[in-house]
Amino acid sequence: MTRKELVTTVANKLQITYNSAENAVMTTLDAITLGLKESGTVVIAGFGTFNVQERKAHMSRNPRTGEKFMAGPRKKVAFKAGKNVRDAVCLSDEESQ
Predict the structure, then answer these.
(1) Which residue(s) pair with 72 in the sheet?
(2) pLDDT at position 91, please?
(3) Which pLDDT belongs to residue 19?
(4) Which of 35, 38, 40, 95 could form a disulfide with 52 if both were Cys (CB 3.0 to 4.6 A apart)?
């Protein structure tokens, strides 16, 4: 699902204009981003947890040249789905079979 599809779904579900739905979706995404910047963790009960993880420096390889180099440490955002999301996805997989 793309952002545009998400906004359209929200607009249809809540019976609001596309622009209002887009503002709601973008505000939600901005709030999640801000939460990750400030505390490193955003927990949405019943949906899942976003958190920032530190990656250590490690040896990497340039796929074009094969040259090895040391890739520095960096941060990455991870998401762990909550039970409700996992169950919904797993049940929808089982129903389609």
Answers:
(1) none
(2) 80
(3) 97
(4) 40
Do 47 and 84 meet the contact criterion of CB atoms below 8 Å apart?
Answer: yes
Cβ atoms within 10 A of the Cβ of 35, count? Answer: 15
Rounded distance, CA 75 to CA 37, Å?
11
For the chain, the first-to-last Cα distance in angstroms comes to: 22
How is residue 23 written in tokens?
Answer: 């503002």
Q: Are 51 and 77 in contact (CB under 8 A)?
A: yes
Angle at 81 between CA 71 and CA 74, to 5 degrees: 15
Residues 12-40 have pLDDT tens digits of: 999 999 999 999 999 999 999 999 999 99
CA-closest candidate to residue 78, choices 44, 48, 39 = 48
CA 43 from centroid of its chain's CA atoms: 12
pLDDT of the residue at 93: 61
